[in-house]
Design goal:
Layout: H1 2-8, E1 9-11, E2 17-20, E3 33-38, E4 43-47, H2 53-63, H3 79-86, E5 91-98, E6 110-112, H4 118-122, H5 129-132, E7 139-144, E8 147-157, E9 161-168, H6 177-191, E10 195-199, H7 205-214, E11 217-225
Parallel strand pairs: 9-10
Antiparallel strand pairs: 1-2, 3-4, 3-11, 5-10, 5-11, 6-7, 7-8, 8-9
């Protein structure tokens, strides 16, 4: 969970959050409060740089008494306390997975996205990749008919872990292509000496199905208040 937080947000020297750690220009502000609960019972928490110390101390006392993450649909033990104290305007929550080396490998053709092939792969649905691909590397595509139909790439990049960003063209969904792209991406990230992580929101059923098809290792739940 430490690796997840490191990849998701930028931190200052005091460990306070500043921005969402998007690899391209124009990142938005980080949440005011981040809580990551693990299946082992250890919690990781972070506060944005502008959260007052008095509020931070109260939040920390609740965080230290959080329960383990068992069901990713269940909120934190003290969720209502967090929401009330911070007068929450927006809340996000979802499961976090680690992609192990023993996961199912791609069974269809996957290709690394490079400067040489991005123009060809991007046609017919992923045209935005031409301008975007260099920021979010490595990137891997499932290729059908000479073009990308599912793309997985690093959309949060930390020193020790990368977070997956996955998109599949609508007409090609439900064929296992998303799982294949994710598997190929994880292999590329591991070759860099980093851990491949995959997280999503509690209501994103399609992403959760990809995690199930790949047999990903569920390690915790993230909870953020903006």
């Amino acid at each position: 969970m430490e690796y997840h937080a490191e990849a998701m947000f930028t931190h200052d020297r005091s460990g306070r959050l500043h921005l969402v750690n998007e690899p391209w220009p124009g990142s938005g502000p980080a949440p005011r409060f981040f809580l990551g609960r693990t299946t082992e019972g250890k919690s990781v928490w972070r506060f944005r740089h502008d959260v007052p110390d008095q509020l931070m101390k109260q939040l920390e006392s609740w965080c230290a008494n959080e329960s383990a993450a068992v069901d990713f649909l269940a909120g934190p033990k003290h969720d209502q306390d967090y929401l009330k104290l911070l007068q929450a305007k927006k809340v996000t929550m979802g499961p976090c997975f680690y992609i192990t080396e023993e996961m199912q490998q791609p069974t269809v053709d996957v290709q690394r996205i490079t400067p040489e092939n991005v123009g060809q792969l991007a046609r017919g649905g992923f045209e935005w990749l031409v301008d975007d691909f260099s920021y979010a590397q490595p990137g891997v595509a499932v290729v059908q008919g000479g073009r990308a139909v599912s793309v997985c790439r690093s959309v949060r990049i930390g020193a020790r872990a990368h977070e997956a960003g996955l998109e599949t063209l609508e007409e090609f969904r439900g064929r296992g292509y998303a799982a294949a792209a994710t598997a190929g991406w994880a292999k590329a990230v591991r070759e860099l000496g980093c851990f491949p992580l995959y997280s999503t929101s509690s209501d994103n059923l399609s992403s959760q199905r990809v995690a199930g098809k790949l047999g990903l290792s569920f390690y915790g739940v993230n909870f953020s208040i903006y």
